[in-house]
């Protein structure tokens, strides 16, 4: 009787006399017992999954990198941790476990040279994204200065700045050119303005060639319906600002005294490209020229990170990733402020491995005896 259900035994009426027993209450059936057991089992599995997940997230601290040790902190330490600490633990686990599994499951492929640790694979590209920062950035437009997420940059400009500031978005592929026209007189003094937005789609028209699909950047979110096909593109901002040569002075008080906004001989236009952080450097070729194509100025630069300072008075004197137009060049390109300035932009991705192989080929050719 020890294994009997107490509820069933309580509902079962006692036998009186020699007559048959008649149940007064509805006794629970085996189906009721099984249904209750399934609910209890599901709740227990959920609790075990949560506890296991906590152990996986908290298995290593920030100073430990040996993945053979299984250390679990107590509940008091877990309550004191922040979400940033847990995210850092998850990143260490995912990246470390991938290297550990790659060396254990495919040792022959690694030893033979078919697969290398630096070779881009789908899993490797996915884990490279963990190294990118998720910190929100500030809109580089001085009149806006909003804080936006790294996946909302393209959506922010398509929704908020397409009508207010007249910012246009163009799709561009690697090695292809796009042309933009702007008026130098529309640039305000020491105010960043966005001249245009480029949706970089990679080297081809296929979906797999897009930067986000190749693990170059994060996917875009909350895009307008007409631009939903840009979800895997990289948003590149074309920025421009009118500043002064006096910005290089270390003494800011002296700088404010010498700067004269009405003095055209002090003016200078700084043009640069900016984007979110990527796993590989993106380069661009910017060429500004006049309407008749008689004068031009070209520069090869790297796309700047939006997480860095976007104040041209700070970086233009030390950073080569921008093009600077002095007063004389502005007069020539705009023909005395009567014409617009044309700007041609090309985006390229340079592979470091290809640049290293070129000297070896030249040495092999030079080592051959001349006949």
From TrEMBL:
Residues 351-371 are annotated as: Disordered. It comes from Glossina fuscipes. Residues 361-371 have a biased composition (Low complexity). The gene is LOC119644657. Residues 138-335 form the DUF4729 domain. This is Uncharacterized protein LOC119644657.
């Amino acid at each position: 009787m020890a294994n009997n259900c107490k509820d069933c035994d309580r509902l079962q009426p006692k036998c009186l006399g020699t007559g048959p027993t008649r149940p007064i209450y509805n006794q629970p059936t085996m189906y009721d017992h099984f249904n209750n057991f399934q609910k209890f089992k599901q709740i227990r599995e959920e609790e075990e999954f949560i506890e296991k997940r906590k152990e996986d997230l908290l298995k290593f601290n920030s100073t430990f990198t040996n993945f053979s040790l299984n250390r679990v902190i107590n509940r008091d330490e877990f309550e004191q941790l922040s979400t940033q600490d847990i995210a850092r633990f998850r990143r260490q686990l995912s990246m470390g476990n991938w290297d550990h599994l790659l060396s254990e499951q495919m040792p022959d492929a690694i030893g033979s040279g078919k697969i290398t640790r630096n070779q881009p694979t789908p899993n490797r590209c996915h884990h490279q994204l963990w190294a990118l920062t998720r910190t929100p950035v500030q809109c580089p437009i001085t009149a806006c200065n909003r804080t936006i997420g790294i996946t909302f940059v393209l959506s922010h400009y398509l929704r908020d700045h397409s009508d207010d500031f007249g910012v246009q978005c163009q799709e561009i592929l690697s090695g292809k050119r796009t042309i933009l026209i702007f008026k130098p007189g529309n640039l305000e003094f020491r105010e960043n303005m966005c001249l245009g937005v480029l949706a970089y789609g990679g080297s081809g028209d296929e979906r797999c060639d897009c930067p986000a699909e190749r693990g170059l950047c994060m996917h875009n979110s909350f895009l307008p319906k007409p631009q939903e096909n840009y979800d895997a593109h990289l948003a590149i901002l074309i920025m421009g600002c009118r500043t002064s040569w006096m910005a290089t002075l270390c003494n800011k008080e002296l700088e404010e005294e010498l700067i004269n906004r009405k003095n055209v001989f002090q003016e200078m236009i700084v043009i640069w490209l900016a984007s979110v952080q990527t796993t590989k450097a993106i380069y661009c070729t910017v060429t500004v020229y006049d309407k008749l194509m008689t004068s031009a100025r070209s520069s090869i630069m790297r796309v700047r990170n939006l997480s860095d300072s976007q104040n041209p008075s700070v970086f233009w004197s030390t950073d080569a990733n921008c093009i600077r137009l002095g007063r004389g060049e502005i007069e020539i390109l705009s023909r005395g402020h009567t014409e617009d300035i044309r700007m041609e932009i090309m985006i390229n991705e340079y592979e470091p491995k290809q640049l290293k192989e070129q000297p070896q080929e030249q040495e092999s050719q030079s080592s051959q005896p001349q006949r």
